[in-house]
């Protein structure tokens, strides 16, 4: 006997509100008595992670978890669950199945401490040991329209300032500014950025690093409400140049966004996936690095009008010579 589920799309990817059409194919070598053949459509999110709690004499492992269900629908293709037996003929039996997805669903996702999954399960129910089932996973790509977030089309700038204390004296400030032409992007695009570092402190800046990071936040409900954060590096650019006292440097570069499906989890209460540009001015180990962050929105529906990728510079920090060194990371 063979059991197969064939979806109407090769990539097995759908959007909320669309209709899934599939076929359940069962081949019997001889006539078989079954009670029913049923199909279940299931959508859910689940999280789980563990913490080690130190105790006297022994350590305890505490597990945090949560479960959220979006739909669970059954469809009897032949017979009834728990009903009388019926005989199916030998050979190939094909059962068409349709299911309309709900409108508000999060995208499929699998992370370190949880995920969002959508499955089709076909099951043959019979007496004895003849029960057999097959599960097939399909994917949801939930739309995220950048036009619904008009602020992401505007240039954004973030500035952080710190002071270093050396014995009883406080030095001048170290300033780090990150500017991007917009904060809304599609997969496969490049994020142009401008970094300005003005060092009037007594400490040398050893290098400037710029990252595109994915921030995953997981939530639990059992045994209590808790959160777990996991960060993943998406792209990185480094400017390996010492910025000495009373020196100012300006760098431009770009971060490449991978060609992958957008993880729109706005309809999931257990998992958040966010993106940010994280810039850091690294100094010696005796002092804290200076960092700043800019949130980035990744969508899968483009702006109706083409956004500008030109950065309009504001007031610039001037060196003693009145000029600003401009270093292109692509050179």
Automatic annotation (TrEMBL):
Keyword Zinc among record annotations: no
Identify the domain of life: Eukaryota
Q: Which GO terms describe its biological process?
A: protein transport
Q: Provide the coiled-coil residue spans.
A: none
Write down any Gene Ontology CC term: cytoplasm
Residue ranges of every copy of the Arrestin C-terminal-like domain listed in the record: 170-303
Task: Give the transmembrane region(s).
Answer: none
- One Pfam family in the UniProt entry: Arrestin_N
Looking up SMART domains in the UniProt record yields:
Arrestin_C (SM01017)
Which keywords, in A-to-Z order, does the entry hold?
Answer: Sensory transduction
Is this entry keyworded Glycosyltransferase?
no
Family per UniProt? Answer: Belongs to the arrestin family.
Q: Which PANTHER family match?
A: ARRESTIN DOMAIN CONTAINING PROTEIN (PTHR11188), ARRESTIN DOMAIN-CONTAINING PROTEIN 1 (PTHR11188:SF176)
What is the protein name stated in its UniProt record?
CSON013888 protein
Species of origin reads Culicoides sonorensis (Biting midge)
Question: Gene encoding it?
Answer: CSON013888
């Amino acid at each position: 006997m063979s059991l197969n589920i064939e979806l109407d799309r090769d990539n097995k990817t759908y959007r909320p509100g669309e209709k899934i059409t599939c076929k359940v194919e069962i081949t019997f070598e001889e006539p078989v008595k079954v009670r029913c053949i049923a199909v279940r459509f299931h959508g859910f999110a689940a999280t789980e992670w563990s913490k080690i709690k130190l105790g006297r004499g022994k350590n305890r492992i505490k597990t945090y978890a949560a479960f959220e269900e979006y739909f669970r629908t059954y469809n009897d293709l032949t017979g009834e669950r728990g009903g009388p037996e019926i005989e199916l003929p030998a050979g190939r039996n094909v059962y068409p199945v349709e299911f309309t997805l709900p409108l508000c669903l999060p995208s499929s996702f699998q992370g370190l401490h949880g995920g969002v999954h959508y499955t089709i399960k076909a099951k043959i129910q019979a007496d004895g040991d003849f029960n057999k089932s097959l599960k097939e996973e399909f994917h949801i790509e939930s739309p995220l329209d950048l036009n619904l977030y008009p602020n992401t089309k505007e240039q954004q700038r973030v500035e952080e300032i710190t002071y270093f204390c050396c014995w009883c004296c406080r030095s001048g400030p170290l300033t780090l500014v990150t500017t991007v032409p917009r904060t809304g992007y599609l997969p496969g695009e490049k994020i142009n950025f401008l970094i300005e570092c003005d060092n009037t402190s007594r400490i040398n800046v050893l290098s400037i690093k710029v990252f595109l990071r994915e921030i995953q936040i997981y939530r639990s409900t059992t045994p209590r409400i808790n959160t777990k954060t996991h960060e993943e590096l998406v792209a990185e650019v480094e400017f390996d140049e010492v910025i000495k006292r009373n020196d100012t440097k300006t760098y431009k570069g770009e971060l490449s966004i991978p060609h992958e499906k957008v993880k729109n989890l706005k309809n999931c209460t257990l998992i958040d996936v966010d993106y940010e540009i994280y810039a850091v001015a690294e100094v010696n180990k005796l002092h804290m690095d200076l960092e700043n962050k800019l949130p980035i929105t990744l969508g899968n529906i483009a702006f109706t009008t083409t956004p500008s990728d030109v950065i309009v510079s504001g007031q610039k920090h001037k060196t003693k010579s009145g000029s600003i060194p401009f270093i292109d990371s692509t050179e």
